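Structure ticket #2291
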Amino acid sequence: MKTSQIKLSKAHPELDLKHVARAIVRKGLQPIPPKTSIALRVDADVVEWFKSQGPGYQTRMNAVLRAFKEASI
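Resolution: structure written out below.
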């Protein structure tokens, strides 16, 4: 279906991401806990490797640390 074929009305308004987020929260999903900012000394080659994988290198580093933590339990 093309965007021009979509008929908006009061019953079917344009998608609003705030409404989607509210619906998810109402379904009982837990919000993501806030992250803590720290200063961490990491070898330059390790940081460069994560950065070379593209945007979101800090998120990937966090995922690796989380996997290590969960594997250690």
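Closing remark: Helices lie at 17-26, 44-52, 57-72.
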